[in-house]
């Protein structure tokens, strides 16, 4: 099939690359000329394991192309994906400007019948709006069907998630469009769930909100565990053995960040409020997360009183490992608050340092390696559980610092291991360990 993908971010580029890999002819269009230029040179504009190799392979095979011109992209397309951003606005609602602009771009350039699929995460009712905009602006005498096809990939494992997803959700009122999409996705061998447009749009928000709820729930339990002397790791494991609960997304830590959970939970609260519904549960999930992201700071202040003049190493800056994405990362809040407290911050991340420099306070210093960051510090905050960070042993910390004090926001180590070393170790939802 001939496919056009609009937007080459985490979702658009991964979708385009994977669809070309299963044999479709894909042309990706982006308004960002630099991005398009880089992709044409075989450089992925984002860090995502396996993506660049697959992109180059399919580009060279002639199944994948890149352009900045919408008319070129839409000329032969049977299917057009909208995969542009829907960022959060000041009041929490989703900003639909980019999606609406693409609808106009499609209407103005379409020359043949096509199915328009929204992959961007959009509030219930948006696909209908997309169709309205297209019909209002359309120039040629062509038929357009719309479908909602929300995306469930995770950053850091986006390529593998696309090939091995749990389900593909297709929401459309057109049987023809549903069948075409089912055919298009067939080579993936992933179960397809067909529904109406509004339900598909809601499935996306409900899924992200539910996952965020699981995280805030276990984080609340972890805070209780600390007060009651229980171990949240064991609690999560024991809970997860019940199939009805499941063992995934019960990793206590310093909260969820990223470009989606924070934005989509806020958007759903707003979506609810527009139909006069107070989504109290989700509001609490958000509040718990906001506090959790500051937890290492709170623990350090309780331990030391003032952090003024202290040197603190931040290990890991991205919102999760294996991505360069810094959106809503806990490192942003932590570094801002540490700087405000008068602490010196020495930051290190294997991949996202360039992106971090644009977002963290200017007072933050950067180290060339985790070892250098630790050696320049008095205290260590583990923010992101990169393998490179987890591979640092307590013996390393003993060698690098006179009295290692570690605040681990991702529970990278077992307490048994910590007890064997001369380290002070504070983690999440577990007892603190002090050297003898
Ligand atoms: N990042 C993720 O892991 C996931 C994101 N989503 C959703 O997918 C959507 C896209 O997210 P990301 O890929 O992270 O966004 P992104 O911000 O990384 O990329 C969006 C791209 O669209 C381009 N763009 C904007 N307007 C355009 C136009 N008129 N024509 C052509 N290109 C245009 C931008 O230049 C940019 O390259 C959002 O709605 C997000 O909520 C859904 C699942 C996973
Ligand atoms: O809509 C989206 O954009 C995507 O949002 C999340 O994917 P992503 O944000 O890339 O990453 P996750 O692995 O879900 O992690 C999100 C945050 O939750 C945190 N997390 C995750 C799991 C857990 O048990 N505990 C926990 O604190 C992570 O550290 C991270 O900060 C969802 O998992 C995807 O299904 C969805 O498509």
TrEMBL record:
<comment type="pathway">
    <text>Nucleotide-sugar biosynthesis; UDP-alpha-D-glucuronate biosynthesis; UDP-alpha-D-glucuronate from UDP-alpha-D-glucose: step 1/1.</text>
</comment>
<dbReference type="GO" id="GO:0016491">
    <property type="term" value="F:oxidoreductase activity"/>
</dbReference>
<dbReference type="InterPro" id="IPR014027">
    <property type="entry name" value="UDP-Glc/GDP-Man_DH_C"/>
</dbReference>
<dbReference type="InterPro" id="IPR017476">
    <property type="entry name" value="UDP-Glc/GDP-Man"/>
</dbReference>
<protein>
    <recommendedName>
        <fullName>UDP-glucose 6-dehydrogenase</fullName>
        <ecNumber>1.1.1.22</ecNumber>
    </recommendedName>
</protein>
<dbReference type="InterPro" id="IPR036220">
    <property type="entry name" value="UDP-Glc/GDP-Man_DH_C_sf"/>
</dbReference>
<dbReference type="InterPro" id="IPR001732">
    <property type="entry name" value="UDP-Glc/GDP-Man_DH_N"/>
</dbReference>
<comment type="similarity">
    <text>Belongs to the UDP-glucose/GDP-mannose dehydrogenase family.</text>
</comment>
<dbReference type="Pfam" id="PF03721">
    <property type="entry name" value="UDPG_MGDP_dh_N"/>
</dbReference>
<dbReference type="Pfam" id="PF00984">
    <property type="entry name" value="UDPG_MGDP_dh"/>
</dbReference>
<dbReference type="InterPro" id="IPR014026">
    <property type="entry name" value="UDP-Glc/GDP-Man_DH_dimer"/>
</dbReference>
<keyword id="KW-0560">Oxidoreductase</keyword>
<dbReference type="InterPro" id="IPR036291">
    <property type="entry name" value="NAD(P)-bd_dom_sf"/>
</dbReference>
<dbReference type="InterPro" id="IPR008927">
    <property type="entry name" value="6-PGluconate_DH-like_C_sf"/>
</dbReference>
<feature type="domain" description="UDP-glucose/GDP-mannose dehydrogenase C-terminal">
    <location>
        <begin position="313"/>
        <end position="415"/>
    </location>
</feature>
<dbReference type="InterPro" id="IPR028357">
    <property type="entry name" value="UDPglc_DH_bac"/>
</dbReference>
<dbReference type="Pfam" id="PF03720">
    <property type="entry name" value="UDPG_MGDP_dh_C"/>
</dbReference>
<keyword id="KW-0520">NAD</keyword>
